[in-house]
């Protein structure tokens, strides 16, 4: 039964956003580590198999926990976990269906432009961010080959991490923390639910056309 998982994810998201708004570390520790596991439970209830999206959610959980710990070492550990998330999602999406070439080119242009703008402000983080953001951009491009919902999720994931990159570069926008978490939560939700819909549809056998003159 998969019904409770998405409402629980919605509740955990609200609690997490309240924690961000109030700058309450305790509240964030309570809610943020639950986001990806709740979606993983939903995915398992719907698919009953381990695939790239499931692996991605496991490492997203580890990344979320790492990013709750202050300091550059924890930040790099979190980035490493999310790198595995992006690679796992990328592999799953490419195995499902190849994306349009135009989408891949567009995301590569965005990747190159964003890194060119941030190069002088990230310092020692620039090289790790360069590699991670490439995997992220390729994942978002590959998501366009799965479904519209998954494509929007991939784009939101890219947008959320771009905001984190801006913060690491010392560029802070009003309500940036809330924007990061709301877009991230929406990205996970859209990717997971869209993946379930797309893969279940692909697994469903095509109806057999029968010759109208054939005798049953």
From TrEMBL:
Membrane topology: Multi-pass membrane protein
Primary residence: membrane
Origin: domain of life: Bacteria
GO cellular component annotations of the record: membrane
Alphabetized InterPro entries for the sequence: TMEM86B-like (IPR012506)
Keywords: Membrane, Transmembrane, Transmembrane helix
GO MF entries: hydrolase activity
Residue stretches spanning the membrane: 75-94, 101-118, 124-143, 150-173, 179-202
Statement: the UniProt record of this protein carries the keyword Membrane: yes
Keyword Transmembrane helix annotated: yes
Localization per Swiss-Prot or TrEMBL: Membrane
Protein family (similarity comment): Belongs to the TMEM86 family.
Protein name per UniProt: Uncharacterized membrane protein YhhN
Provenance organism: Micromonospora eburnea
């Amino acid at each position: 039964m998969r019904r409770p998982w998405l409402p629980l994810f919605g509740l955990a998201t609200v609690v997490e956003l309240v924690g961000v708004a109030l700058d309450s570390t305790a509240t964030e520790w309570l809610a943020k580590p639950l986001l990806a596991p709740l979606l993983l439970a939903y995915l398992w209830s719907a698919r009953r198999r381990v695939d790239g999206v499931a692996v991605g959610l496991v490492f997203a959980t580890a990344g979320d926990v790492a990013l709750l710990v202050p300091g550059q070492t924890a930040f790099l550990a979190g980035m490493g976990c999310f790198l595995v998330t992006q690679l796992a999602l990328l592999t799953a999406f490419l195995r499902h269906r190849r994306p349009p070439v135009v989408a891949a080119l567009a995301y590569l242009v965005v990747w190159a432009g964003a890194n060119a703008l941030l190069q002088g402000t990230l310092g020692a983080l620039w090289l790790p961010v360069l590699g991670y953001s490439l995997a992220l951009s390729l994942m978002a491009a590959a998501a366009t080959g799965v479904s519209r919902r998954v494509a929007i999720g991939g784009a939101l994931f890219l947008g959320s991490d771009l905001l984190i990159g801006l913060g690491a570069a010392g560029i802070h926008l009003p309500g940036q923390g809330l924007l990061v978490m709301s877009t991230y939560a929406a990205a996970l939700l859209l990717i997971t639910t869209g993946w379930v819909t797309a893969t279940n549809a692909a697994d469903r056998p095509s109806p057999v056309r029968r010759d109208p003159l054939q005798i049953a």
